[in-house]
Write a structure and sequence with these properties.
heterodimer, A: 381 residues, mainly alpha, ABC transporter involved in vitamin B12 uptake, BtuC, two-stranded antiparallel sheet, two-stranded antiparallel ribbon, globular, B: 10 helices, binds adenosine-5'-triphosphate, binds magnesium ion
């Protein structure tokens, strides 16, 4: 069936990617990142970034407001838990639908402009969403205190099947609890599905048209394409990815707060995508993992850990070195991230994936010198 | 339909275009017959490109209208005009620099096959063998086969132009507008392009061509309009226009080029 067909190359990439994701608890262990809470974030933010890249990487439209859809996804999922059931699937489904509708409305208005004006519009809509969630729509969002589960939630479906237990429930899948490692594996499977769908988009005529829009929108319209609905479809798809990611955040921790919609969260997914490689399939995943790693691991380093790390430095210098280094960890982790970002953008404008390609090319050149003029253009991976 | 009946497919009806106080086009009337090649010549700044911009919907005329095959084009969006069968090669090539030559030529084929908008996620571009074969054949026609996997942005100006021509031809447009299609090409490539344009003429494609190169004009044109200062100052069969040099001298200043091609 056409739905499940991939080129051999894409199928191979998917298989390798699946292996990497499923074995995450093993290969993150040496980095001290193999606890479920962080690995769940790795999977969830990878979904967010992959979806963002479908818009930014393929059409070139840079949204600074995608966290709004992440937040909408979280709120929807928590409401699905509160009103219907703790099962994750309805929560994901509703979150994708509602965030898609939001993206349709915001995208419809924002796409009337392009370039920087588009970015500013999306930023403005996200700011409005944040303010709505924080104060105006308190009955729906519970404002400052965040939307949470309570012992009085109706949970119509759950309670029709079984009596209310003691304490707050956790999200589940067909009765199976999704906490800890099983929560991670659930997110991982959703990530693989999201990745597969992105591969389909990238390889499809639709994806090619989006690349055409990024490359020369004017040529697209004189070639017979109505470019606005193409860009809008990409916007809605990426909004749905964000909503899906937001819902998974709620699955792993049934709570939704307005800060999830803050502009820093919107900026973060832009950084992830650029850091990893705009317009590539794998790049945004790597970017998401790096940034979440820095955020969670670097930020937890304190002077005690640094002091031990720099034990080899002679005593008179030791305190100075630790003092300087401490500015880059703990609260200062964003300084390190900022530096890394600057280095990548300056030296590898195509992101980390460009670095990977360059290294690959280096090895290939060593293996067999390329024929003159036989420049093969690599499709984005 | 009798052969004596003129079948006008493009009708530019009393079109004017002002840019502020500048009258770029004044009361232009133009009729192009089906299957013919209609050349528009004139000095720099005469308004030739502006006229094409009005036809394809890039600019709205200040007054007047353009009718193609019984349909009013004026007021329609560029993509709608293209879907009616009008394609254009621009004076400065409008291409997709980041895509390969093959992809550049395939994209317009999708517009022709799937229409102005279609979310086609299930299919795979790599599986579109028929479209790719057609694109490769046309790329071969314009002589770019050896570059078909290069990024279009890396092509020379003349090659970009030939590729843009291929992008138009794959759509089999009913009306092809060419804005200086051979500018920046070597003599050899110019001649290849002339041959190609003759070949598509034999297939009955209607063309409006803007050209400074009189060798190209007199090789291809069935009819010539001379545009100067936004007005059509002479019009007729190539031989008439050639004989009409005295009239043009005042406006063209390039009349010697006309004589040179005798
Ligand atoms: N978008 C525009 N805004 C303002 N003025 C314009 C615009 N487009 C063209 N013009 C002016 O209209 C006049 C006609 O320009 P046009 O490009 O049609 O000339 P042309 O005959 O194609 O010349 P060339 O042979 O140099 O291509 C020029 O004076 C030009 O400066
Ligand atoms: Mg011009």
């Amino acid at each position: 069936m056409a739905l499940f067909q991939l080129s051999r190359r894409d199928a191979l990439i998917l298989a390798i990617f699946a292996l990497v994701v499923i074995t995450m608890p093993v290969w993150t262990a040496p980095f001290g990142a193999n606890y479920p809470g962080l690995m769940q974030k790795f999977a969830i933010y990878a979904i967010f970034a992959i979806g963002f890249n479908i818009l930014f990487g393929l059409t070139g439209y840079l949204s600074f407001g995608h966290a709004a859809f992440l937040g909408v996804g979280s709120y929807t999922a928590v409401w699905s838990f509160k009103l219907l059931t703790m099962d994750a699937l309805p929560a994901l489904l509703f979150a994708v639908l509602i965030s898609g509708l939001f993206a349709l409305a915001i995208g419809f208005l924002s796409l009337r402009r392009s370039g920087i004006y588009f970015s500013i519009l999306t930023r403005a809509f996200a700011q409005m969403s944040y303010n709505l969630a924080y104060s105006v729509l308190t009955p729906i969002t519970n404002g400052e205190t965040s939307l949470q589960l309570t012992l009085q939630d109706p949970r119509l479906i759950d309670l029709a099947l079984a009596p209310r237990g003691a304490g707050l429930p956790t999200a589940s899948l067909f009765g199976m609890s999704l906490s800890g490692l099983s929560g991670f594996y659930f997110c991982a499977v959703v990530l693989l599905i999201a990745f597969f769908f992105a591969q389909k988009v990238f390889a499809s005529p639709f994806g090619m048209m989006l690349r055409g829009i990024k490359s020369n929108q004017m040529r697209m319209s004189y070639t017979g394409f109505n470019t606005r609905p193409y860009a809008l479809t990409a916007f809605v798809i990426s909004g749905m990815y964000a909503g899906l990611a937001g819902a998974l955040l709620a699955v792993t921790d049934p709570l939704a707060g307005a800060e999830r919609m803050q502009w820093t969260a919107s900026g973060e997914v832009v950084l992830m995508t650029i850091l990893g490689g705009v317009g590539t399939l794998i790049g945004p995943v790597i970017g998401a993992w790096l940034i979440k790693y820095f955020e969670n691991i670097f930020s937890s380093f304190n002077e005690g850990i640094l002091g031990r790390f720099f034990d080899f430095v002679p005593a008179p210098l030791h305190d100075t070195v630790v003092a300087i280094a401490s500015k880059f960890v703990g609260e200062g982790w964003q300084l390190t991230l900022g530096l890394l970002f600057v280095l990548v953008v300056v030296f590898l404008p195509g992101g980390i994936m460009e670095g990977v390609r360059r290294i690959g090319a280096l090895f290939r050149r060593r293996g067999s010198p390329p024929k003159a003029g036989a420049m093969r253009v690599q499709p984005a991976e | 339909m009798t052969t004596s009946e003129r079948n006008v497919v493009l009708h530019v009806d009393d079109v004017s275009k002002n840019f502020g106080g500048l009258h770029a086009l004044s009361d232009i009337d133009l009729e192009v017959e089906e299957g013919q090649t209609h050349a528009i010549i004139g000095p720099n700044g005469a308004g030739k490109s502006t006229l094409l911009n009005v036809i394809i919907g890039r600019l709205a005329p200040s007054s007047g209208a353009v009718v193609f095959d019984g349909q009013v084009l004026t007021g329609r969006k560029p993509h709608q005009i293209n879907q009616l069968g009008v394609a254009r090669v621009f004076q400065t090539p409008e291409i997709f620099p980041e895509l390969t030559v093959l992809q550049n030529v395939m994209v317009p084929a999708f517009a022709k096959r799937d229409g102005a908008f279609r979310v086609n996620i299930l299919r795979n571009v790599a599986g579109e063998a028929a479209l790719r074969d057609e694109a490769e054949a046309i790329i071969e026609d314009v002589g770019l086969s050896d570059r078909r996997l290069s990024h279009a942005g890396s092509l020379s100006r003349g090659d970009k132009r030939r590729m843009e021509l291929a992008m138009c031809l794959i759509q089999h447009p009913r009306l092809l507008l060419l804005d200086e299609p051979t500018a920046g090409m070597s003599r050899h490539d110019t001649n290849t392009t002339i041959d190609l344009l003759k070949k598509i003429k034999a297939r009955g494609m209607t063309k409006v061509i803007i050209e400074h190169d009189m060798h190209v004009v007199f090789s291809l044109a069935d009819k010539i309009s001379v545009l100067s200062g936004g007005r059509i100052i002479a019009e007729g069969l190539p031989d008439d226009v050639r004989g009409n040099i005295k009239v043009q001298e005042a406006y063209l200043g390039g009349a010697h080029r006309l004589e040179a091609t005798h």
